[in-house]
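In keeping with the milestone schedule agreed at the kick-off meeting, the structural modelling team has produced records for the first pair of proteins. Each record is given below as a sequence line and a structure-token line. The laboratory manager (R.T.) confirmed that both were archived under the project's standard naming scheme.
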Amino acid sequence: MPSRRDQIRMSGEEVAAFLAEGRTANFATVGPNGRPHLVALWYVPHGDTIETWTFAKSQKAANLRRLPQATILVETGDSYEKLRGVSMECDVELVTDTERITAIGGQLMRRYSESDEIATSAGQFARLQAPKRVGLVCRPTRITSWDHSKLGGAY
């Protein structure tokens, strides 16, 4: 009989679909004092890899220059039987090429815009913001997932 853990684990396809429908990621880096530095970020999924951006002078960027690793959590559910989530320990590439940062920012703006018109002007915003930002490409080294709905309401 499979363990409960095996029963709730998502497949690779389920992880990719879950990240595609998710909206906000909790993004943790290690701060200068050794404690977690946790922020919420919008992101663009590419399978199980996610991309985002941040201000080049932000604390998370400083943390990633020191140690290019992050733990990222995307989750949903308001009761035990509905809990679903993906936690990823990632190696993070800091992108400094302005064109690539603009592309990441443009993808973010399109993903979170409510209309094509807003997405077009948001793309212009991304181009103006890119020189002040760094891109973050997060590649998982370990993925943990759970979907408690697979238990059919049983604990």
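The second protein of the pair:
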Amino acid sequence: MKFKISCIQMDIVFGNPIRNYQIATELIEKAMGENPDIIVLPELWTTGYDLTRLNEIADQNAIKTINFLQESAKRHQVHFVGGSVANRIENEVLNTMLIISKDGQPVQHYSKLHLFKLMDEHLYLQARAEKGLFQLENRPFAGVICYDIRFPEWIRAHTSEGAEALFVVAEWPEQRLAHWRALLIARAIENQCYVIACNRSGSDPNNKFAGHSMVIDPWGEVIAEASTNEEILSAEIDVDLVKEIRSQIPVFEDRKPEYYK
């Protein structure tokens, strides 16, 4: 089964949700020219890393963003891996990925487990341990956020349950671009799955971001890769290839988890 994917590598306006919804609307319209089945947005695309103001600008229960994605999905008849947003629930703020089907139905949400101390996430965000497993068109996928890709055990916890593609949304800094590429390719190879990674472009007061959104096949071959600029990266994946590759090299059958303690 084939899916056309469009990753929106947007330049997020620091701390300005109103403007970011406008930019996302424009880029979604542009992405529809590629006739995608799934549109992917980057991490914290409504606020950027304006962490000190999250109590003011976070989306209460992610309601505004859910409504935005639902309306966009129904209007364009496209599935959304809706990046992640600062999601305020009572007195806590989570970094939450939102999955919305093309008929506007919420499919899944996943809140980032591994908080990145170098960017002070642990001071302003709360972690959650629920997995990011979901299905679109009856195919099993998974979603994780940025720093999560440095934890292969967490990725394997998803792919061992059958996920055929891993969606990664991020604000990955430019100085660690080599790590971004190496980690994503490694996750694809070791999990024998597609990796669809949507990073942001541009900069904020403290960071310059790498861009280089990528689509990688289960052999670790890079199908498509963006530049550092704001752009839409589109590629087609065939998830039936995953089963074929997993049968050729039966990594999942040959695992010995009883020794991995």
